Amino acid sequence: MPSFTLIFLAALLLSGLARLWLASRQIRHVAAHRDAVPADFAEKVSLADHRKAADYTVAKTRLGMVNVALETAVVLAFTLGGGLQALSGLWQGWLDSPYSRGLALIGSVVAISSLADLPLSLYRTFRIEARFGFNKMTPGLFLGDLAKQALLAALFGAPLVLCVLWLMGRMGDYWWLYVWLTWMGFNLLVLAIYPTFIAPFFNKFSPLEDQALKARIERLLAACDFQAKGLFVMDGSKRSSHGNAYFTGFGGNRRIVLFDTLLQRLDNDEIEAVLAHELGHFKRRHIIKRIALMFGLSLGFLALLGWLIDMPWFYNGLGVSTQDTAVALVLFFLAMPAFMFPVEPLLSFYSRKHEFEADDYAARHASAAHLARALVKLYQDNAATLTPDPLYSSFHDSHPAAAQRVANLQKAANAA
Fold first, then answer.
1. pLDDT tens digits for range 95-124
2. Is the CATH number of domain 210-287+347-415 3.30.70.360?
3. What strands lie across the sheet with 255-259, from one edge to the other?
4. Where do you find CATH 3.30.2010.10 in the chain?
5. Active-site residue identified among 71, 129, 359, 389
6. Is 218 an active-site residue?
7. Measured between alpha carbons, how far is 142 from 203 in angstroms, rounded to an integer?
8. pTM value?
């Protein structure tokens, strides 16, 4: 067996086993704390809500364990199982153009992977989410969303893949630099058109009609020197009862979007505090920093692929004898997650750091007490556990634990 095959198998199996072990820790930890609300939340969260959050977390984590096993099996089937080699041979026999073959190969891998994940997605939506009272999705809406996603993939993904394959074949040894520039441009384009083209494809956006809340938000924006094109309410309740708020777009196309479920649950003080937190992400340049990090990582990955693409051991070690650009792309993105697992805590820590900074910004421009109160309500409404396993959280959670955020905000409120 080639040495790279052994390295790949070790990375894939170790990362899979580590994910399963972390998930089992999370389940045991949450279950062990199921029957006692943490002291800091005893007056704010009922025992029934706390137990619901624990049961919801355990159910999602168990499904996640099944997903880890499925993803590992799919990667092995495509690589050492010969699936990718079989698909490559199939399209070589049917299509003459290397670009159409490459597009067909990548499209078929994406389609097969999506079909493999479909049963879990259905179970997540219509069993787990429905069991805990969150799902509002109908089968028709679910299928409609799949069709819309497929259409957007055809409209945007197919031209991008063809462009990448052409650059890889025509731009010489530094093709990866041209592909990186194209990838950056594509992502910036999507950010620019998402608010006005992509998002309305799935949801209805209406101008905020509550004039008192609108005036309050506009005062907050003026105090923070932030320009937004509009304040909109999204019909998130047609899919889920989870609540949220976010900023979208950039430059003169920025919008503030509030879920209708959020407006139903939070009062105006709390909504202002939540939006101040989101403003903190912009004012602290978190969005720009994350985009820069994404572009930096993608440049490094593409440069690595530029070196691997001419190495026979890379293909042979992953069970493929055909060497071409499309095969190299698919192999790289199938194998890379197994080697990236040790980096996940660093990325999660970076994200949690930004959340604390946004909370601090909100505490100075709105009310720390109101934000803390809003967070407790959101944790209740979304059935987010108050007692996650610390080690599991360090790998998987992009937001700090509720106790940490609320304690930080209480310090800010006391200082004020």
1. 889 999 999 999 999 999 999 999 999 999
2. no
3. 205-207, 230-234, 255-259, 245-248
4. 210-287+347-415
5. 359
6. no
7. 13
8. 0.91
